[in-house]
Amino acid sequence: MSPAAPPLPPDFAVEDHAFAADLYKAARPPSGNLFLSPASVRIALAMTAAGALGGTEEEMQRVLRLSESTQQNNAAMQALLSALNAPGKEYELHVVDRLWAQAGASIKPAFSKTLETSFHSPLEQLDFEHALEASRLKINQWVKEQTAGKIDDLIRQGILKPDARLVLTNAIYFKAKWTHQFNPRSTADAEFFGAAKTAQVKTMRMIERFGYAEVPGAKLLELPYADGALSMVIALPNANDGLAALEKSLDGKTLDRWIAALQSGNRVSVSLPKFKLESSFTLSETLKAMGMKSAFVFGPADFSGIDGTRDFFIGEVVHKAFIDLDERGTEAAAATAVMMRAGSAMMRQPDPKEFKADHPFFFFIRDLASGAVLFTGRVADL
User: Could you tell me the pTM of the whole model?
Assistant: First the structure.
């Protein structure tokens, strides 16, 4: 029987929200839709940070919004993974890690043990040097299996190099029904005033009691899943072209304020388009811009906690995410790979609040118990 995971630190949600907002703002393109998993990126890079020392460790801790104690960070990730993967849920949520190492590579036992204990990440040996394509396909197949086939070809040809020594992967899969499902018979075509074009899209409708708030420049709606353990929060700008201004003001404190502002029990008339999004990123330049610089440069990079040498540096970080939202609920998946290289009473009801998502909006899916932001995204055009 494995030992019980430690509790999450009291500031975990605050720091998690800060990283989620930082990553979203740094990764977002100037136009178009966007979907990603801050949780997947943070967990995969926290695995990598477990082997970092010196200035590299400090940079990674600062960008990932981790504490200055590696031991505390590893314990926090252990607690998070245990909470997210807890059995007996009314929804599917799986978060898994895997460490892939060059056959014969000298990995410190302490590093391997940390990944096994804190990240539940077993070690598997591959031969990047002599069987690069077979290794790439093996990792991609593992990711595909862990995400119910939704994330395919995470590591595209040409990204993984023969001098790769470690690949650290995280995969997350989520599928849940809405607590209050939309009636498909109420779904009808309606205009969506997108950033680039106006289109007729399948739009779901419902009047129900939800978490709701009006904040400067936007309306907020919280749609719970299953037993209410997770939810999607949608931030709908008041102006059709207000998404850019909303994104500009986005940070961790904004997410905290939005969550605190939500008031449950409001009757809301909801109009929400069905949508399906997929995004793919290489994140090295994004992470460098966020302040994680030395980790990507041979020489300055210090990952000697992995094998006792200064030979390792991060070659690339790739991320891919998928979401499908309809009347029944949401299915979402994401994966991240970090490639290390050498080199009740009857009465008149008040009029419902109107939440008509017929123009670009921002959204995020969160785990209420831990506070972790699992996914973030924007719908700009449909």
Answer: 0.95
